[in-house]
Structure formats: structure tokens, C-alpha cells
Amino acid sequence: MMAGRGRNSSAAGGLARHIPVMLSEVLEALQPKDGDIVVDGTFGGGGYAKAILETADCKVIAIDRDAEAFALAGELADAFPGRLIAMLGRYSEMESLAASEGVTRVDGVTLDLGVSSMQLDQPERGFSFAQDGPLDMRMGEEGPTAADLVNTLAESELADIIYIFGEERRSRAIAKAIVKRRAEAPITRTGELAEIVVGVLGRKRDDPKHPATRTFQALRLYLNAELEELAKGLCAAERILKSGGRLVVVTFHSLEDRIAKRFFASRSAAGPKGSRHLPDAGGEEFAPSFQLINRRPLEPSNDEIRGNPRARSARLRAGERTDAPAHPLDLTALGVPGLGG
Ligand SMILES: C[S@@+](CC[C@H](N)C(=O)[O-])C[C@H]1O[C@@H](n2cnc3c(N)ncnc32)[C@H](O)[C@@H]1O
């Protein structure tokens, strides 16, 4: 079992637990069966893992890159003895993580993207513009913080990140304001960054969306390389799934959803040509490696959105693995943005 990172490892206990999004739809698409092995690549508050373990007498390999996520895993492991394996790491590494437990093929993979409520609601993690905290935003413990980025990157790089990963039209003005402010003193708090963005964009009284939403999303996605992780994770799932195994992905914004959509389109006969063999970006032909479970992405019901507003932008895409070989990873074809091109 994983240990917490010490920053506030007991925090999960005092925080409202993450409400799993589109849970019944995830189970319906995944269809876990007795004897299955399922990878839950984004354990978070364990909502999916628990429901999967309750649905069938299966095993779950639970991965999260955030050690604090596993504060709740002990309870679950006790409730389902020998059936939950909690592993600290990135889901793009699911093959080597599973292999370290002697597992080379699995029956299902779920990915529920983004941050959990526990991460978002803990100001010390630095994900929230609503509550002031250190400007951190790292899901794991390694690498630079968001403060490192805003205080050291060139203005043009900051503008590109905010534009590409936040789809923020006023990215240049925001980057300029950041650079002006940091010349006075380093920017170290989420509240400070949110205030700088509000200073540029203003705040409309009737707009429920905070003006800093897109800038915070951009820094978080870039810092944690989340879109690259997603593309690599989808391809890892494609390689590790048995024929007949199922992949279920829940995305929360257009950049994530575009990658999931392109992945399934390029791997299924629902690709641009609808042929039995699909050209990849290099023009090479591959047999479809997935059959789509839903032609169109599923969305949460109005009831779910009323009960859990964080579900409102969720989109679920799912596919069943065929016996065709996995296609090669092509980050550009899957729509993973890079800086400078
Ligand atoms: C939305 S939450 C998952 C919630 C979970 N399905 C539940 O029902 O409680 C997303 C989780 O995925 C983790 N995560 C995000 N990207 C990851 C990655 N590349 N590898 C492993 N974990 C990741 C985050 O740390 C977070 O805990």
C-alpha cells in the first residue's frame, strides 16, 4: 500500500470524498465479470474501483500518480481482501506496473481524467483559484511547480501555454500581466495568479465560470503533461487489453475529448473511411483494434449534473478490443498539442 507524501497525508480523511462521475454508465460499458482483472488507471477517491469490486468477483489494479489518493485504498483493500492492488505511478506505465504484479493481459481499463475533488478542495495542492494556496498544481511529487513556470518562463512561452492548453483568447495579455507582476516579486499563491487574470479579463457578475478557469487548466495540463499521458495511456490500454476486453474513458474538456475521439476513430471501423483496414498518419494500413461500444459519446443525465455540478462537462467513450494488433502511438495524429507547432 502506498504512503502519503507528508504534505498533508491525512488530508483525504477530512475532505469530502470525490463523487464518481457517470458511474452507472462506466459499469455498463465496462461489464466487469467474475475472474476479470481490471486496471483503474485513475484511482482518485476509489469510487470506480469500489463499484467494480462490488459488481463482480474480480481484481482491480488501481493506479494513481498521487500518493495521497491512496489514503482511502486501505479501507477498500480490507473490504475486498486480495482483490485490490494499489500502485503509485502514471497510467501510461500500466503495462510495467501490471507486469510487476505478474499480470500481462487485462480484461478492462478505466480512465477518469483530470483532478479529484480531494485534490481540488485542498488549497495546499495549489489547483484551486477559489481557495488561496501555494501555486503548486503537481499531481505527483516530481518536477517543477506552477510557481516555477509562471516565474521563469519567457512571456511568449507562457502566452503559448495559456492559449494552447487553456484555449484562452486573451493569453498574450495575461502573460504580459504575469511578467509585469513577477518583476516586482515572485508569484507564489493561487490567489495572486487568479487576481492577475481577473485584472486582465474582468469579472462578469452573471458568469458562473471564474475568469481564471482556462489559465489554471492550461498550467495544470502543461505541468503534468496530461494530454501526452492520455495519448500514451490509451495506447498502453490498447496493448494490454485482451481481445474482448473493454476500455472506458471519461473526459472533462474539449482537448481531452478530442484525443479520446481521435483514438477511437483511428482504431475502429468508424474512422474516416469506415473501412476494415484503417490508414494511420503514415498511410500504413491497420485492422481495427477496437469496436466502438457507443457511436456517440455518452453525457451525464440532468439528474446527475444537478447532484454533482462537476459532472456537467463529462463525456464517456468506450470500445471493445478486437484481436487485431495494436496500432503505433502517434501523438500528432491523436491531437496532442506541443509548444511551437
Ligand atoms: C477524476 S479523479 C478519479 C476519480 C475516481 N474515478 C473515483 O471515482 O474516485 C482523477 C485521478 O487521476 C489521477 N491521475 C491523473 N492523471 C494521472 C496519470 N497520468 N496517471 C495516474 N493517475 C493520474 C489524479 O491524481 C486523480 O487522483
Task: Explain what you see.
The chain is of the alpha/beta class and 341 residues long. Helices cover 38% and strands 14% of the residues. A hairpin with a 5-residue loop joins strand 6 (278-279) and strand 7. The longest helix has 15 residues, at 226-240. It is globular, with a radius of gyration of 20 Å. The termini are far apart. 47% of the residues are buried.
Average pLDDT, rounded to a whole number, is 92
Spatial gap, N to C terminus: 41 Å
List low-confidence stretches.
Answer: 1-13
Strand order of the largest sheet: 3-2-1-4-5-9-8
SS summary, helix count: 14
**Biggest pleated sheet:** 7 strands, mixed
Unique ligands:
S-adenosylmethionine
Q: C-alpha Rg, in Å?
A: 20 Å
Protein structure class: alpha/beta
Tell me roughly what share of residues is in helical segments.
25-40%
Q: What's the number of extended β-strand segments?
A: 9
Run of helices and strands: HHEHEHEHEHHHHHHHEHEEEHE
**Strand residue content:** 5-15%
Spatial shape: globular
Using brief descriptors, characterize the structure shown:
14% strand, 341 residues, alpha/beta, binds S-adenosylmethionine, disordered N terminus, two-stranded antiparallel sheet, 7-stranded mixed sheet, globular
Brief overview:
By secondary structure, this protein is of the alpha/beta class.
Describe how the helices and strands are arranged.
Layout: H1 11-14, H2 23-30, E1 37-40, H3 47-55, E2 59-64, H4 73-79, E3 84-88, H5 94-99, E4 106-112, H6 117-120, H7 146-152, H8 155-166, H9 171-184, H10 190-201, H11 213-223, H12 226-240, E5 241-251, H13 254-267, E6 278-279, E7 285-286, E8 290-292, H14 302-307, E9 315-321
Parallel strand pairs: 1-2, 1-4, 2-3, 4-5
Antiparallel strand pairs: 5-9, 6-7, 8-9
The structure holds S-adenosylmethionine.
